[in-house]
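Hi everyone, sorry if this is the wrong subforum. Our group has a chain we'd like a structural model of before ordering constructs, and none of us has done structure prediction before. Sequence below.
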Amino acid sequence: MILLQPHTKQQLARLVEHPSHGVLLSGPEGSGKAYAARYVASQLLKLESLEKLDTHPYLRHIAPAENSLGIDHIRNLQKFLQLKTPGREGVRRVVIIENAHLMTNEAQNALLKALEEPPADTVIILTAPATQRLKQTIYSRIQQITILPASKNQTIGHLKNDFSEAAITKAFMMSGGHAGLLHVHHSS
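Answer:
Right subforum, don't worry. Here is the predicted structure as tokens:
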């Protein structure tokens, strides 16, 4: 199970129940956006575990190369979106674009077409910090969910079976409460 602040968890559950063709998961660096995107993708594709995502034929995970996402990334994505997907499930294909704020202007313009006319069986998940670095036209075509940090008590409750409370508290304080930065070590 994923560690999420209750409001964020509720919003992600609603997204899985009633998928939007495009969603932006935003939050500060280390908030766990990428992990939350993978979690949502696994739920949308009805997979038993996150590990199954790595071999799923209709998942495309795009991440920046050298701090940039260029037009070639999105052109390859457009080809992927043209492929037919088998089955009758409502969502059969998921795209994760990690650090979408690093897309060039050309890449953002190319992505707009996919967001304006998405395949009916596809959900596109973007992750980015909570800054206005994407084109306004992209924001207007997607649902936005902020990944909020879990409280100290939620974090302890989530991890208490595997780690000591002292180790969890130390990790929580060092991470500033951000799940993506949370590294708990077993105490001796």
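For your construct planning: Residues 149-188 form one domain. The mean pLDDT is 90.
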